[in-house]
Each structure stands twice: as C-alpha cells, then as structure tokens.
Records
---
Amino acid sequence: MKAKIIFLVATMLVGTFGSEASPQTPKPSVLKWPKTNKNLSLGVMYGNICASDELNIHAWGLNMQIYGFYFDCLIKPRNHSNDVAIDKWKETEAVSYHFGYQIPIIEYIRIIPVIGHSSVKKGITDGSNWTVTNNGISNAFDVKQKNAGFDYGGVLVLNYSCFCLYGAYTKHNQFYGGVGLEYRF
C-alpha cells in the first residue's frame, strides 16, 4: 500500500514539475508568483480614525505594497506636544496601522483583507507640566477619553497604468482612501 502511494505522489510530481522541460507545455501557474503581485506601490491616504460620534479624527497617512504584502499607517499627532507656551490645550492624537496581502481579482482590480490596530486619545495638553528630553520639551498629556482596539477590514485597489486608487473600510476607521503610484518589476 505504501509503495502505491509513493508511486502516485512521484507520478504527480513528475507530471507537474517535469512539464517544464517541454517548451510546448506551459508552466503550471501554481509555481509562478502572480503577475499582479510583482510590484511596488506607494501611496498617500486620508480618512477617519476610530470614527464615532465623540471621537472622529481626520488623519493623513501612507501606504506601501511590495510583492502583494500591504501596509498602511494613518497618524494625527498632537499640535502642542512640544509647545513652549505655558497654557492648556484640548487636543487629540490618533494612530492606525494595518497589514494584509492582496488578492488579485483581475489585473486592474485587487482586494486586500487587512488586520491592524487603531487608537484615538482625547485630552488636555498641559504646557505648565513639561519635561526636557533629547528631543526638546515634552508637555504632559492627560487622557480624558480613549478608543482603541483590534481593527480589521478590507481595501479595494483600482489600478490604471501606474496609478492606483485605494478605498478602504475597517471596523474602527470606517471609510478612508487614497492615491498612489505603482512600479512593476
């Protein structure tokens, strides 16, 4: 019985990999990297982080995709974190990042399931409570409201020539989008 199984597996392997020796037989698509994933794409994104009624922060970010692996990051820093004035400011800070791998539908349309993390903090920056570090003055930030957690969703990529249009929807970020350039290898 073991000999029959080994013979069947060997026959399938020879049939699969041995077909590359014949110039008339096309290579199996399983052995090739998908053509639409052989690229480098860089883009700019804009959208909401942790979109809710009380914590709706607009942020800018960047995305990158190389060989189908995708990463994006949106960030909105505090405005007065290094301010030298002695005052108090109501501020927000937000960070969101996602990772994924693209699934080509056709050459010009791709879907990227993503997972990541989103965090929004709303509070008071206190200019009278500061410390000095190697980066200069750092004002204290008293968090009054926070929304953070695991984030998941998807990104739709529409590609024309070397231009990409991104539209994304995730649990915390709701809708956000961007544009980018793609370079094929």
---
Amino acid sequence: MRKIFLSIIVLLTAVSMSAKTTLINSEIDSLWRQTTISVKNGGQAPDVMTLLSAFHQALPTWVVGEVLEQQKKPVPGTKRNGTTLLFENNEEDELRILIDPKNGYACYESLTDVDQMSCCVWRRSNGHRIFAISLYEQHVMPQNLLCWYDYDPQTQTMKPERSPMDDYQKPFPLGEVSWTLPEKGTDFIINEYSPFYPTLRRIFIWDGMKHQFSKIQLEDFEYQEFGDGEWTKASGEGFKDVAFVDLDGKGYPLLCLRKAKESEDQERDDMLILAEFKGKMQTVAISDMFHRIRGFFHVKPEQDAPWTGKEVVAYTSDFMHISYYVVIKDGYIRYFVTESPLTDEDGEEIGWEPQIIGYGSKDESIHIIHASVADHVEVDPQWVPFEFYGQKE
C-alpha cells in the first residue's frame, strides 16, 4: 500500500511539472547562473534566433515562445525585409515584435502585456559569441532580469558569464535603474532614473571581448536661477563635467555641472549646483564671473525656531551685493531667499530687503538668513566628463 501511495505522489509531481510549460522571472533568476545550455546545430556562427531558441528550450518563457512562433508563422500585417520581420500595431497595446538576425537583435514590446523581452548577440574576437536576454515583467513592482551567456562554437554550448550589471553599483538609494540592449550597434547602456536629477545614462562600448565603460550622458533640461527669471537650456551653456554632492549626508544627491576652464589662471571653476523645486530644476549655488559661492551650512536647531536642524543653506552672492540663500531639505529646494540692498534717494545703502520664493513664510525666511549656523558643509565634487543627449532643436 505504501509503494502505491508513493507511486501516486511521483506521478502527480511529474504531471504537475509537465503542465507548467513556462517559467516566470523569479524562477529563471534562481536557475540561469547554474544552467549550461546546449545549442542544437549552433555551429561556428549561430544567429540570434538560434541562441534564443536554445535558451527557450532550457528556460522556457511565454514571451520568448511568442517571438519564436512569430518567426515560424508571422501574424498578418508583418513586414518582411530580407530576414528581418517587423510587426507593429497602433492599437491600445502598441505591440511591436522585431526579429532582425542581420543586426543580431529581437524584441517583444507592449504597453499592456505583462511580459516583454529583448535579446542580442555580440561577436567576440576569439570566435565566441555573447548572448544577452532581458526579460521584463510588469507588476506593481516590475521585475527586470538580465541573463548573459558566452557561446563556445567548439562545444556548441552557452555558459553563464558576468555582465556589466554585475559590476554596477547604484550610486544613491532612491530611484530606478534599467538597461538597454542595442537594437543596432554594440553599446550597452545603463539608465538611472532619479527623483533628483534628469535621466542619466552610462555608456559601455564593446572592445571585441567585453564591454568597457566609456562615458556618461545626461538628458537635456532647462533650469532657472534662484527661482526667478528666464529659463536656460543646459546643453547650450558649455558644461563639460558632471558630479553629485550629498549635502546632508542622507543619500539625496544634488546635480553639479562644470564648464571647462578658459585658462590655467582662472581663479575658480564656473559651475552650477542644481536641485528640483516644484518639479523643475533650479540653481542652488553658482560660481562664475558674476557670482561667488560663499558656503554651505547646516542650520543650527534652536528652541522655538522655525527650522528643524535638518536643513542645509547654500549661500551665494553676486557683484551687485545681492545675497542668495537656498534652503535644501531631503534633496529638494524648500525655498529661496534673496536679500537685496535698500538705497535712499541718493543711492546710499540704508538696509536690506529679503524676498522669499517657496513654501516657507516671510518670517521663516528672515530667521534662516540671520540664523546661527552649525558646522560648515564641505563640498568636494568628484568630476567626470559627460555629454547631453535628447537636445531639442
């Protein structure tokens, strides 16, 4: 009787496994690094669809199955150009299925389907291939998965290998990270989406065997000086270097941009420090021929004061003796305070007039200006070269 019972359990388990024909990302994530994949008829130069089919045989997914089915039996409306198949619709889901063996790329994209994918192939100088596949599941918490394999033509197998994402460290805790496989070309791109600055891309170029970090790109944007005046497009200002500073030490980055020095004798860097204010980028501090950064300070908490001690004040002055105080809290600009000299009829200075832009009150702004400050905040940006992308004509 016990043998019969155990036989039933084994049979039910086998039926359950056979009924489950596809895997989800969390399951693949636990398996792919330990899975060597045999590539049937791989030969010396398998194309992207041959490697994708082998991956699907070992780690089947619904979305890859859809792409392979499209290759076998293209749906009505598919456009063919040589070996390239492209299906696109303009309906609610905006479905796009591309199979492009010539450029070593395939993808399934949709606004409504839970599962999406893209994959590509790089040729290695030693005769091997790199096969990468990105699997995306749209949930309340999206699940992104990148699998990276080396194909060996001698053994006709794919073995797991480290990708650029394995060596990537997210610079700040808040924000999201994704990656882009090249539809054309060979660059691998890591995309950083932050609530504190425009989208940043880290570009990795192909050297024939692996990807090497090349440069940073920052999405173009407009900014305003101290909450007032005209808007300026950042890409038109000649900025060459980018850095991030964490003024309050909580992991909330402020964006820094710097221009190239015009001469070795230039006294100080031309630079901006920026942060968001009401969804737009605004200057926190400016250093150029008209402005001088005077310092950054923690506001000292005092009894019955309108500040908490968690604020940081950036202090800039200009050649017209106007002072700009920008109050930062948790990475965002809380308010701007501008203090201008008051003059009499003869042009003599007789006092100062504060003006406030932001969420605070006038009394609060005056308190900030005249507050005792705690320790000075040292700012030492670690500059790296960058370029803008997405510039508007």
---
Amino acid sequence: MLKQVVIDKVLARQLWRLGFKEPTLCYYDLEGKLQNAEGEELTLKDHNAPKQTPGRGARCYSAPTLSAVQDWLRRKKRLELLIYRDTFFQNTGDYYCRLIRLSDGLSRDTHTRKSYNQALADGIKQAIALLSKA
C-alpha cells in the first residue's frame, strides 16, 4: 500500500493561485508548519481562507495529498498524470510520470525516479509550471 504524501508549502501556494479549493485534512499554518485538521474528529475542510491577521501574505494553505492533487488536475484542469515503471526483460526499473493535456494531447515525461511518489511529485510540479504559463 502506498503511503499518502502531502505536498510542500510552495506547491500548496501555487495550487491556491491556480484555484485549488478542495477540502483537505491537513494545512500549512501562518508560520508554514504542517498541521492536521483541528479537533479530535477528522473532517474535510477548505483551509485556504485568509486568516484575521495583519500584513500581506498572512494566509493558511490547504495541504492535499499527491493523489488528491492528481485527481484535481484531471477533473478541473484536464491534465492526466500517469505513472509508469520501466521494465526490461522482467527487470523492473525506475518510475516516471507522463503528463497528458487532454484538450490537445500534449504529452511530456519527467525524469526517472526511484519511487512512485517522487515521480508523481515531479509530474505535479511540471503540471503546475505548464498551467502557470497559460
């Protein structure tokens, strides 16, 4: 079973700029520290709302898992992130991510990585860079 990995604060901020408003269990507080959902019960919540603090940039950001971002990119931005593993004569190798823009079929591959999560994180970074240019 794959471990659920949460994105870092830089990616969380970039996703917020792209319109990520999905409920999550974790968030980055004003100091940039990763926090779990408040209270004893696990509730999904959009943590991107600005807090009542003075100064610019005083904001919390939702911290979704890699798989939640992958799903959001597919549903909202029409970008498919597919993870592949190299195989050569029954020897399994490294992972890589293929980014496919569903609107026109544009396809890009990331560099090979040792783990599934690293390949998916690279694909998400590449997708954010592609969306930021548009």
---
Amino acid sequence: MYDYSIMKRFLAFVLFLAIGSGVLLYFGWTTLKVPAGKCGVLITKTHGIDEKPLENGKFVWKWQTLLPTNTTVKTFTIEPHFCTKTITGSLPSADVYANSSGVTSAFTWRFTFDLTIYTSAQNIVDLFKEEKISNDEDLQAYLDDAAETISQLASSYILQKVKTDRNFNPESLRMSDLFKYISFGNEYPLIELEHFAITESVVPDYQLYEKIRSSVFNPSFENVSEVSL
C-alpha cells in the first residue's frame, strides 16, 4: 500500500524551500529599495561602501542585506539638474569713469545662462566615496556649484572675445565652440554638461572705457562723454 505520508513530507519540504528561497530573494534584492529616477549607494558594516551603484529596474542580490542592521542604502537623484545662472560684474573703477564722463551702465556686464548638467550612477558612488556628497541635497548643491563654475568660465571667455571684437555676439556662441576654449574637467571631472545656452547678454564697451580711462591720465583729452557707443 502506498504511503501518502512520504509524499506529504516531500511536498512540505519543497514548499518550505520555496518560501525560504522567496524570503532570501526578497531581502537580498537590494534594488527593490531604490525608487524610479534614483540610484542607490549600498553601505554595509561588514564591507563598507559597495563599488557598484544600485539602479532601479536592475536585479542585484546582496547577501549582506540578509544580516539585520548591517546595511544602509543612500538614494540619489540621477535625473539631469537644470538651473539658470546670472553672472554680473564691472570693469575696474567703472563707477569712477562713468561718473566723471556722464556715461552710465557702459562698463558693466551681465550674462544669463541656462544649463543642464548630470552625473552617472557610478560617478555618484565615487563622489560618495570621496566624501564630496553624503545625501541627495549635497549632490544637488554639488551640481549647482559646477554650473556656477561653468558660467564663470564662460563669462570670462566672452569678455575676452568682446574685448578684441566689439561686434562679437555672445548669444550666437554654440556650446560646442565654447568648450573648445574652456574646461572644467580638472575641478569637476565627474560632471557632464548636457545643455548650455546664453539667454541674456550685456557686455561692456571696452573702446569707450579705454578712451575715458586715457582721459583721466591725459587731461588734454576732451569731450570723452561724446564718444559714441
């Protein structure tokens, strides 16, 4: 006579293995903790910071997460960071020369840039390991600082061009042309620029500035206020 108890024990054993495997799979599946649009940095008490990022939609299983209180997952936004930066300034002693000649607002500059910058999930892990960021707020601030640096470099380049070519139009400058001449890779090697546009530009009149400046050191120079822009 067939012993059904053996079959019941076997099925119970298989069911136990299936449930146990499911539990291990669930608690070891680290990317389940990472929302869409984010990446994660896995930190374990046993092995420190994991070398690879955790990305939503990619299966990653880590046995370290099976140990209670052993792991922490820090999440970061991986979507591009858009910002607008305005850089202003004036030529040396601009107010003095402007007041003495009756010319106003001819020696100042103002540039407004739209930028979209980003970094990869792997780079976020590297920035975390280098202690440049510790949370998502730090990452956004880091990207914003990079955008500020890029805008400052772009402004300096535009001013140099305007000084040698008064007909130069900054807003006609393309991103590909601009970044032949400026580089931010040394300071921000893990940052990529996706979009860059000049939306506003006010440039100083270097020619008028030099004529008024010369008049200060050469009193015989007259009618500087009548110099055309």
